[in-house]
Design goal:
The protein is of the alpha+beta class. The protein is 29% helix and 35% strand. It is built from four helices and seven strands, in the order E-H-H-E-E-E-H-E-H-E-E. A hairpin with a 2-residue loop joins strand 2 and strand 3. It starts with a strand and ends in a 5-residue tail after the last strand. It binds coenzyme A.
Amino acid sequence: MEIRAALPEDIPAVSEIYNHYVRSSTCTFATEPEGPAYWEKWLSDHCEPYPAIVAIDAGRVTGWATLSRWNNRCAYRFSVEDSVYVLQECHGRGIGRALLKTLTEYARRFGHRNVIAQIADHQAASEKLHASQGFRQVGCLDRIGYKFDRWIDVAIWQLRIEDIP
Ligand SMILES: CC(C)(COP(=O)(O)OP(=O)(O)OC[C@H]1O[C@@H](n2cnc3c(N)ncnc32)[C@H](O)[C@@H]1OP(=O)(O)O)[C@@H](O)C(=O)NCCC(=O)NCCS
């Protein structure tokens, strides 16, 4: 498996992976699939120090991940949020872990101090993935989202870069 920066030609696969979860899962609170204009902006917004990366297996994009600003207020400038999405049929092969590990390495290199994850609906795979990289749950917003006709919690997980051994 190769992990590299996302390129314009990856956008169809990246958007297909994400839009699948928009339609089928509470892991994202988006409810409508995003179109080409959204993804062009997504790519242009994700340049250093807010990278977008992809996992490639046998020439195919099997997952993607980003660091984004956690909040646009200036005092939050040392904190970023991660996003990780892996093709459903490729779950459980270590792709998510490889992507998140690469993101935390970038976070350190670019001088970010905190990486935050918002994990909706107590999703075990996402919780395990983040725990494996040293994140810890620091809070939970109870019943903050509404999708598929039910209320959903969002747990906040934090990795302090200085705590990585
Ligand atoms: C969360 C996600 C990125 C994990 O990717 P993945 O490539 O399947 O994960 P990995 O194979 O690297 O495994 C990471 C950990 O999750 C665990 N895991 C993977 N799938 C799991 C599942 N369905 N249930 C429970 N644990 C699971 C693995 O055992 C591993 O834990 P370990 O280190 O303790 O062994 C993937 O499930 C996904 O894309 N989910 C939908 C999008 C999403 O929820 N993104 C996160 C938003 S915060």
